[in-house]
Inverse folding.
């Protein structure tokens, strides 16, 4: 099964919390604060690999989550950082942010890696807040949340040569004859429903990749037939082999239809160099064969008469194709990649104030909720610090705008207190 589009959800690891702890050892005078820092959450990366040729794996797994960082420990021991997550994708994968539609990466070389979600920072333990003036801090920091986002993956196959032609032109037969690929072959249109890749050996033992694109028909660029779905896969080819079925009633008309569809899809694609292979010479008589070759020779200098079934003239034709692979460089595909702001956006300082009943207001928000979770309501120093943070974040101003009155109750996580001017 071939899959060239996928949508995945990713989540980087959450940072571990710092802790409040104290060094209490016999013979150690004034042990002081000893709360360790939380570990950083794992990052999420995409890495391009030649081992994959389709996005099929993402049909069975579409949610990926990196490891969270550990909380800090006593004796100033820091929590372990979460492991980074590397997601393998095929060469030629274009990565888009689902929410914004921005193209954030074009992974077209082996091992190319991009970070798509940065892990949350670990919170600091109380040992980090000790100063000569404040020797016994009673507070710590929570870890940051990871980043959750949805990505769109779109595959554009990286092949050296693209094989085009009408349905039943013999493309599958040709690629099976010159490579180890075993596509489905049958005597009816649209036998090939997905692109096939074949590795062709050259005379010098090197190799190149030949892509068999499903048959194009008139109107393919507007969505007719199957070919429109896969036209993007020939954009990265060095050149094209245009396979023409000589047994058809009007081969030249079919040739022009295909080229018109290429032009409608992309002007640049229509200008890519083509080798014309007139196939099924075993099915037509000699006069018809020579007549059509003369007609096509008016269009191109590189016209070959072949039979993919019997192998007639196939060795000479493939020798020419191999020579062209060496002569024509890979095209430079310029895809505008935008700066990926979403990969490092760990700022979750936003919050919501809402009224739950006549005299009660609740506050929700990632950072505020985590700060409340590590605040001990019995510790005056921690409460003062928490209130100072709320003030600096504008929470009290937001409560006033929401209509809070003196004596009303404010709830944040497990904390609950009366509001006083």
């Amino acid at each position: 099964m071939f899959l060239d589009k996928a949508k995945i959800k990713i989540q980087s690891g959450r940072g571990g919390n710092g802790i409040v702890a104290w060094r209490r050892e016999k013979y150690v005078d004034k042990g002081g604060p000893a709360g360790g820092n939380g570990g950083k959450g794992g990052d999420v990366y995409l890495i391009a690999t030649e081992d994959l040729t389709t996005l099929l794996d993402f049909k069975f797994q579409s949610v990926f989550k990196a490891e969270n960082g550990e909380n800090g420990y006593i004796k100033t021991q820091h929590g372990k950082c979460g492991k980074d997550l590397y997601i393998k994708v095929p060469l030629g994968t274009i990565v888009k942010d689902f929410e914004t539609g921005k193209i954030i990466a074009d992974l077209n070389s082996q091992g190319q890696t991009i970070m798509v979600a940065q892990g949350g920072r670990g919170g600091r333990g109380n040992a980090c807040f000790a100063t000569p003036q404040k020797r016994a801090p009673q507070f710590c920091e929570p870890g940051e949340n990871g980043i959750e986002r949805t990505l769109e993956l779109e595959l554009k196959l990286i092949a050296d040569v693209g094989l085009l032609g009408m349905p039943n032109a013999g493309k599958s037969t040709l690629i099976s004859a010159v490579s180890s690929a075993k596509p489905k072959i049958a005597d009816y249109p649209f036998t090939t429903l997905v692109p096939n890749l074949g590795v062709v050996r050259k005379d010098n033992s090197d190799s190149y990749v030949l892509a068999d694109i499903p048959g194009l028909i008139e109107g393919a660029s507007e969505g007719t037939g199957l070919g429109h779905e896969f036209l993007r896969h020939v954009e990265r080819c060095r050149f094209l082999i245009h396979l023409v079925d000589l047994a058809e009633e009007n081969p030249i008309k079919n040739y022009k239809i295909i080229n018109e569809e290429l032009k409608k899809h992309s002007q640049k694609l229509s200008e890519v160099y083509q080798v014309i292979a007139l196939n099924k010479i075993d099915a037509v008589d000699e006069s018809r064969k020579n007549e059509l070759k003369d007609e096509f020779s008016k269009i191109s200098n590189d016209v070959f008469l072949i039979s993919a079934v019997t192998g007639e003239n196939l060795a000479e034709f493939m020798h020419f194709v191999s020579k062209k692979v060496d002569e024509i460089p890979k095209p430079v595909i310029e895809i505008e990649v935008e700066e990926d702001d979403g990969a490092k956006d760990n700022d979750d300082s936003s919050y919501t104030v809402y009224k739950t009943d006549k005299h009660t207001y609740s506050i929700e928000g990632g950072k505020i909720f985590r700060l409340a979770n590590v605040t001990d309501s019995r510790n005056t120093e921690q409460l003062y610090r928490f209130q100072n943070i709320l003030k600096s974040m504008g929470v009290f101003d937001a409560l006033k705008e929401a209509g809070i009155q003196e004596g009303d109750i404010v709830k944040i996580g497990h904390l609950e207190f009366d509001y006083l001017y």
The two ends are 66 Å apart (CA to CA). The longest strand covers residues 148-155. The chain has nine helices and 18 strands.
